[in-house]
Write a structure and sequence with these properties.
By secondary structure, this protein is mainly alpha-helical. The chain has one domain. It contains five helices and no strands. The chain is globular, with a radius of gyration of 14 Å.
Amino acid sequence: MLSEIKDMKEQDDIQYHANMNGYLLMSGKITIEDLLGESLITENYCTFDPHIKMPKSEFLHTIEGMLMYFIEQEDYEKCTFLRDYSYEKYLDSLGTHQW
């Protein structure tokens, strides 16, 4: 039972870091270099591969998953950003965020 709780906690941590890092990258608050400079492996998780341009369908799926996560966390500031973040803005940001 204790190991199951620990596993759930680790999964929650990974999910938190993946969604937070995805949001921070999309919003331009961190760069990929910032993300890769983190010392703990779980802090390097992301909801998408920032080295590869996502096709629109993958982008929409990623945004939907992140929205669901942040709604569950009641973090509506991030939800508002993600709701308004378009594929065109993502494409425009690829050069400026140094992904």
